[in-house]
């Protein structure tokens, strides 16, 4: 049968092109394009690269971006006041604080400091609660990107057994909820799960979000399964590797995302989509000027 590669680069480009195509009309109708503010603290190279990618995507789509770079030594109070300024700025639609933050800053406090209407990452407790209650909310970018990829390749979760490895607030838990919403039967696995292989071998859809290169090997994959590799691990070779051993999994899976070029680009595309959604959401409640 062969394994179909899930091309996140291609699908993300389609999403960004569709958004790009809407910009002129949005500007015409509402007087300006959406604006995303990105705050970065310190000089973490991975964070810098992610932030560059986000700003570049805004440029590609034709949206405004504001990059606020703060020193590693910035105090929590100063950071909160920058967030507050962006919350109050009518010309800003989305506020994102790149994680991780330095140890002296309480990440939860900062995330909670972003008004839910501008929380493009979907990490604010109100968005999290709304997601779990099935209410309208901003869906976190990576889980939303995973679902978009499944849809793009015609993989319907309904009635399937989905196994999600990893239970973080930003990936594992929300992706499990989204799969549940689409009527999958969902099993969540984590570091204390016993007999992981027994579970994964039953999975029609396997989402892996752990952060351990090669954790999932081909002998853990059900023939024909859709395998979504969220993991990003930098190897000793300097290259990026997923959590799934690509070659052995590709020999068994029906669908597989590569790393890089799978979920990663989708995360950024969904961030662009969320920024437009926050912008449109704000139109009904306040002036965008
Ligand atoms: P976390 O470190 O927050 O969570 C990792 C999860 O994996 C935990 O739930 C942990 O279990 C579980 N785990 C650890 N070891 C094992 C094991 N041996 N077997 C089964 N489960 C295990 O990570 P994140 O969710 O933030 O990120 C996961 C990966 O996804 C990382 O590589 C990250 O870089 C990547 N990522 C990629 C994104 C993208 O855009 N493509 C976006 C966000 C993240 P426990 O809870 O028991 O500790």
Describe the structure.
By secondary structure, the chain is of the alpha/beta class. It is built from ten helices and eleven strands. It folds into two domains: about 30-115, Rossmann fold (3-Layer(aba) Sandwich); about 140-265, 3-Layer(aba) Sandwich (Rossmann fold). Strands 1-11-8-7-5-6 form a six-stranded parallel beta sheet. The chain has a three-stranded parallel beta sheet with strand order 3-2-4, with helices on both faces. Strand 5 (about 160-165), helix 7 and strand 6 form a beta-alpha-beta unit. The radius of gyration is 19 Å and the shape is globular. The termini are far apart. The site of NADPH dihydro-nicotinamide-adenine-dinucleotide phosphate (NDP) has 26 residues, from helix 10. NADPH dihydro-nicotinamide-adenine-dinucleotide phosphate binds near residues 166, 192 and 231.
SSE topology sketch:
Elements: E1 4-5, H1 8-30, E2 35-41, H2 45-61, E3 64-70, H3 76-88, E4 94-97, H4 107-113, H5 125-133, H6 141-152, E5 161-165, H7 172-181, E6 185-189, H8 196-200, E7 205-208, E8 226-229, E9 233-234, E10 240-241, H9 246-250, E11 255-256, H10 263-283
Parallel strand pairs: 1-11, 2-3, 2-4, 5-6, 5-7, 7-8, 8-11
Antiparallel strand pairs: 9-10
Helix pairs in contact: 1-10, 2-10, 6-7, 6-10
The protein binds NADPH dihydro-nicotinamide-adenine-dinucleotide phosphate.
The site of NADPH dihydro-nicotinamide-adenine-dinucleotide phosphate (NDP) has 26 residues, from helix 10.
């Amino acid at each position: 049968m062969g394994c179909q590669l899930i091309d996140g680069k291609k699908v993300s480009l389609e999403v960004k092109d569709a958004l790009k195509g809407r910009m002129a009309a949005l500007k015409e109708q509402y007087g300006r394009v959406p604006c995303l503010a990105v705050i970065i603290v310190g000089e973490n190279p991975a964070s810098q690269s992610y932030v560059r990618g986000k700003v570049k995507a805004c440029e590609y789509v034709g949206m405004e971006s504001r990059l606020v770079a703060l020193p590693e030594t910035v105090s929590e109070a100063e950071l909160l006041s920058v967030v507050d300024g962006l919350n109050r700025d009518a010309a800003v639609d989305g506020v994102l604080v790149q994680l991780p933050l330095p140890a002296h800053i309480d990440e939860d406090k900062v995330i909670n400091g972003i008004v839910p209407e501008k929380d493009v990452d979907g990490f604010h407790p109100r968005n999290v609660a709304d997601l779990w209650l099935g209410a309208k909310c901003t869906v976190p970018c990576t889980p939303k990107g995973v679902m978009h990829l499944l849809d793009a390749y015609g993989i319907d979760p309904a009635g399937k057994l989905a196994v999600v490895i990893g239970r973080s607030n930003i990936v594992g838990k929300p992706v499990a909820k989204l799969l549940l919403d689409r009527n999958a039967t969902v099993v969540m696995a984590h570091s204390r799960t016993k007999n992981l292989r027994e579970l994964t071998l039953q999975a029609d859809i396997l989402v892996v979000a752990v952060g351990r290169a090669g954790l999932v090997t081909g002998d853990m994959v059900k023939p024909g399964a859709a395998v979504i590799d969220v993991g990003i691990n930098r190897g000793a070779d300097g290259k990026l590797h997923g959590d799934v051993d690509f070659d052995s999994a590709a020999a068994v899976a029906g669908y597989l995302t590569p790393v890089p070029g799978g979920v990663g680009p989708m995360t950024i595309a969904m961030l662009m989509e969320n920024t437009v959604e926050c912008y449109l959401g704000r139109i009904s409640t306040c002036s965008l000027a």
